[in-house]
Amino acid sequence: MESSPEFYPILLAEDDPISRRLFEKILIKEGFAVTTVENGRKALDLFHQRFFPIVLTDWQMPEMEGPELCRAIREENPNRYVFIIMLTSKGSKDDIISGLGAGADDYLTKPAHYAELVARIKTGIRILELEKSLKAAVDEIHLLSITDPLTGIYNRGYINERLPQEIRRANRYGRDFSLIMCDIDHFKKVNDTYGHLAGDAVLKEFVRCLTSVIRQQVDWAGRYGGEEFLVVLPETDLAGAMVLAERLRKTVQSCETRLDGCTIPVTASFGVTGFSPRGGKAVIKSEALLQKADTFLYEAKKAGRNQVVGRPLVEP
Question: Mean per-residue pLDDT for 7-23?
């Protein structure tokens, strides 16, 4: 369904004041929000301040002509599509091809007919709507590809891709970084006692407990495998990570999964590690961090489970 004109503000670059006022009047009458400028340079400066999904630009203007404006908009906005219509008194095929080659989507020969102008813009809106739908579909497919279908948090593939990026960033900018690896205690017993549907419910409740405690938009969690999970903590030193892990342990212990009249309590064990790259020259690798967190998780389980064990990756 086509969106209303107000969702598609138009930037009009036209040096002739009479044509500029005429185009503006037509578009406002059709319900569009229109911003006008008298040359391509001002249009580009304004575009830097505010995004316009539709641009009407004259070909010949002082300071910056239409084709140059088209090329600049295309180069600076690769991820957001802009529908550009070139307004020109040049009507030869070579001129039209030149304008389209510069990045224009369509053209109008001046003096432009009222109905034709509006029709071209509505065609542009349909294209923008299609582009928006395709982008949403691509985003949804990408989200599904990096998300664990049962728990809704990131999957192992995403962990393998993003964790090294986070660690490289911490190394580069000298920021603290910590990692928590956690595992639900005696999860096999839950499946054997209550069934796999109950096990799935426990996993979902466990993740709900984890994500209710960590910082939104900063920390993130992923399912590393089976009943094993990672909590990634940028900008967090080991002391802070240990405090958070203990809070997570208590939160999980207090959470209960209820299914078919049964209450299923669980606990979890936590292995914590991290590094502070300030003053150190060694570059930390994700493999080393994961191995260390896994070692401490094993120690927590060996010590009786429902515990937190942690030390820095590199001992001081």
Answer: 90
